[in-house]
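Bug report (template v2)

What were you trying to do?
Predict the complex of my protein with ribulose-5-phosphate.

What happened?
Run completed; filing so the output is reviewed.

Input:
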Amino acid sequence: MQKKTRIAPSILAADFSQLGLEIQRLDQAGADYIHVDIMDGHFVPNISFGPSITKAVRPATAKPFDVHLMISPVDLYIEAFVDAGADIITIHPEAGPHFHRTIQLIKSLGVKAGLALNPGTPVDIVDHVIEDLDLLLVMSVNPGFGGQSFIPDSLNKIASLRKKIDATGRDIDLQVDGGINFETAPKAISAGADVLVAGTATFKGGPENYADNIKRMKGL
Ligand SMILES: O=C(CO)[C@H](O)[C@H](O)COP(=O)(O)O
């Protein structure tokens, strides 16, 4: 069942020179999760930061850290991100070598597990793992950079995954990430998404606008 809309600001769009403060501001502005984008310059053509910076800023909020790993291979680093304070770890099936095993590894460490689907990844890839998942992430841009335009076909993927989630009867968040703004947010919600990841749109206009930006994306 689709739940009330939650916003997970992507700190990829934050001011990295004051990352802890930015996370505190997001917390006070009503963010539901803090979305932490980890990029390795190999799985995606950009490098962000790793577990030590994640750990350093973790005390800035009590809100869940939703860590999206765009790295390959991934298994080697799961424990480090759990130790850094991740509450949810989302991986890509293409990160290899065996995503079923990676999901089991994440869960064995007491953390929620998510699977991210790139724009070119078919929705049926979730069929044999959905019973173990806590979150499905529809990438509505190709991963690697903030500030890209929402790919409209993502709405069909969200609708298909909404049906699959509802058929399980389980509590699985349906998250969408990439090009979410005041125009695309309501479309993603209508299609069935219940967690919106937003970088550019959350940080638009500076700190005094974070709360309004989050509210508007929630449709309030
Ligand atoms: O995972 C990402 C890119 O790989 C980012 O979270 C995503 O692109 C959000 O940025 P924006 O809201 O600026 O589109």
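What did the reviewer find?
Residues 6-218 form a domain with the TIM Barrel fold (CATH 3.20.20.70). The chain has a mean pLDDT of 98.
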